[in-house]
Design goal:
The complex is a heterodimer of chains A (about 300) and B (about 290).
Chain A: E1 23-24, H1 33-42, E2 45-52, H2 58-70, E3 77-81, H3 85-92, E4 117-124, E5 127-137, H4 141-149, H5 151-156, H6 159-162, E6 165-170, H7 172-175, H8 181-197, E7 206-211, H9 214-217, H10 225-241, E8 247-252, H11 269-278
Helix pairs in contact in A: 2-3, 4-8, 8-10
Chain B: E1 3-11, H1 17-29, E2 36-40, H2 46-56, E3 71-78, E4 84-90, H3 94-103, E5 105-106, H4 110-114, E6 119-124, H5 135-138, H6 142-145, H7 171-184, E7 193-198, H8 211-218, H9 220-228, E8 235-241, H10 250-254, E9 264-266, H11 277-283
Parallel strand pairs in B: 1-4, 1-6, 6-7, 7-8
Antiparallel strand pairs in B: 2-3, 3-4, 8-9
The chains are: A alpha/beta (about 300), B alpha/beta (about 290).
């Protein structure tokens, strides 16, 4: 292109020539609804909402699961791809020696007006044709507080209705604290109630209640005074929601235990992962308690947390 | 009549691509006993001869220090079946591939280079592998690996974290994403064969290990990706020491009258092979 006639005094007016020879790929930080829709066309896809209060361990859970695959096959499955490798890597960074930290950490997820999802494609060991996409949301605790407190806001978060799995983390650090444990249970119950009453979760959703940081609840790996409260919490949630969802099950995990001589890194993540990858809700239940059209992932609205 | 095959060399910086190419050129141009031999000479061989000279003098073969002629072409004959194949082998720098991972794009011209390629040699160097080491894994060896000491003689603790830098991402992750870019490109015909070359095989401490076992231990994410996508990327893994040993053993290496004897190639079954075996695998059809 001849640019000689264009005034050099206004360089911003220079036409930008698109270089067709440069091929740009996905940025890999996260997938949004449109990208996810494309992913879901290829192989069966499980959408997993990681829910819970701030610092309950949602991001640490997804980062630790990725770390397990980084070290070898996991729970009978092999890593088969990911469109969000930079996103996983960035989330793992503060728990790696490359960060030069002495103690592992996870960067707190900020509230955003877009749903960020991380992607894992896995293949069943010895049956590599059987592949599954798992889309894991990374949504801030503040966002879940908003939808807990407002059925209207909950309805705006349309991805909830597309979720195959709703994994609700209850912070083990709070459950192990007599002053905080009732609030932790009450808030979790309220979040489930809001999602159910709004019709966003129902028989079409598999709900996993995940007691995180289990190493704090049973530090000696045997029943502690806190275990009794967890049993009470399970009974209470079962009484209220046992028949509300496609499934209500409980998991005790320690994604990144403080003392790995007592609890292995990623303690019990395998059972939770197996639930995600191998259990699918029965979609015919949709409509039994809701008039929501599941639609495709591409139809998910951007969620306004405000 | 000869067939035409384009083969890529893929690898991050210092992964052994150019050393492999230099040794290959030494073998096929020198009428050594290999499964592939040079059929006819044509075109400019300046680049190949330059890197071969470096290889023969046991100095690190640095493609940036030689003339800029990275695309080479060799017309090779398969001594087993008489088939003649013209290989076009672009020798791109490791920085090219590092840039692909960081910038999430192919630079101008790369698409032309990869177009119609039949397969690739994928290089990994054992000493250049960045591993994803978690802090909890490193705690026990922290004292041993840290050379710095504070006033009390302990390794210093940094509480100002270093920001994430894609350049320092584990090797296995970078290579998987590079292959995923290839997987996305509609200008290729799949299956796209891969010969994975574990360079500097003489440095691998457990020589009894099969190359695939080594890969599964050191780069497990890449290994899982390969075997779960074998329909798209049929692969074989070779242990190769094109140099034959450390550069500080230059005298010993140059002592070989026949320099081909210093090249070490271990095939997927741990059997000794020759340097052209990974290329033979790329051009074979129904294995």
């Amino acid at each position: 292109m001849d640019n000689q006639n264009i005034s050099s005094e206004n360089p911003e007016e220079l036409p930008v020539e698109k270089d067709e020879s440069i091929r740009v790929f996905y940025d890999g930080k996260f997938l949004d609804a449109t990208d996810s829709d494309f992913i879901a066309e290829e192989v069966p896809t499980q959408v997993v909402i990681l829910a819970g209060a701030s610092e309950s361990g949602k991001t640490t859970l997804l980062a630790s699961m990725y770390e397990k695959f980084s070290n070898g096959k996991f729970a009978g499955y092999a890593f088969s791809g990911s469109k969000t490798l930079p996103g996983f890597e960035e989330r793992c960074h503060l728990a790696r020696i490359a960060s030069m930290r002495s103690k592992p950490d996870t960067e707190r997820t900020k509230a955003k007006n877009i749903i960020e999802m991380l992607h894992l494609k896995v293949a069943k060991q010895n049956y590599f044709q059987e592949k599954t996409n798992i889309l894991l949301t990374d949504i801030s605790g503040e966002t879940f507080r908003t939808i807990r407190d407002s059925t209207e806001q909950c309805r705006k978060m349309k991805i909830l209705s597309r979720a195959d799995h709703f994994s609700l983390l209850i912070d083990g650090a709070h459950l192990a604290n007599v002053r905080l444990r009732q609030i932790a249970l009450s808030d979790s119950r309220a979040l489930l109630r809001s999602c159910f009453d709004s019709g966003m979760l129902g028989k079409h959703t598999l709900v996993e209640v995940v007691f995180s940081k289990w190493d704090l609840i049973e530090p000696r790996k045997r029943k502690s005074p806190h275990t009794k409260f967890v049993d009470f919490a399970k009974g209470s949630l079962n009484d209220e929601f046992g028949k509300a969802f496609g499934k209500l099950a409980f998991y005790e995990i320690a994604s990144r235990p403080a003392d790995t001589t007592k609890y292995a890194f990623g303690y019990n993540l395998d059972s939770l992962f197996l639930s995600w990858v191998s259990e699918t809700p029965e979609r015919q239940h949709l409509g039994s308690n809701s008039d929501i059209d599941l639609g495709s992932l591409g139809e998910i609205d951007k969620f306004a947390s405000g | 009549m000869s067939e035409f095959e384009k083969v890529l060399l893929i690898g991050l910086p210092s992964s052994g691509k150019t050393t492999f190419l230099a040794a290959l050129w030494y073998l096929v141009d020198g009428n050594h006993s290999t499964m592939l031999s040079l059929d006819t000479l044509h075109g400019d061989r300046e680049y190949l001869n330059a890197i071969r000279s470096q290889w023969l003098s046991c100095t690190p073969v640095d493609r940036t220090r030689v003339i800029n002629e990275p695309i080479t072409s060799m017309r090779l004959k398969n001594n087993g079946n008489g088939r003649i194949v013209e290989f076009e082998i672009p020798d791109l720098s490791g920085e090219t591939f590092l840039d692909q991972w960081i910038r999430r794009s192919w630079s101008p011209g790369f698409q032309d280079i990869i177009d119609d390629a039949k397969g690739a040699l994928l290089f990994v160097h054992p000493n250049e592998v960045i591993e994803p080491i978690r802090i909890d894994q490193a705690d026990l060896i922290h004292h041993e690996i840290s050379t710095e000491r504070d006033d009390n003689g302990n390794p210093p603790i940094y509480e100002q974290p270093v920001e994430w830098n894609p350049r320092d991402t584990p090797t296995q992750v970078q290579l998987v994403d590079l292959l995923q870019f290839v997987e996305e490109y509609e200008g290729l015909v799949f299956p796209f064969r891969l010969s994975v070359i574990i360079s500097a095989w003489d440095l691998v401490s457990n020589a009894e290990l099969a190359p695939e076992m080594w890969l599964s231990k050191r780069l497990p994410l890449l290994h899982q990706y390969l075997y779960s996508n074998i329909d798209k990327f049929p692969y074989k893994i070779y242990g190769v020491s094109a140099q034959g040993g450390d550069y500080d053993q230059a005298e010993r290496l140059m002592d070989y009258q026949d320099q081909s004897q210093r090249i070490i190639v271990v095939d997927p079954d741990k059997k000794r092979s020759d340097l052209t075996a990974p290329l033979i695998w790329l051009m074979s059809e129904n294995e």
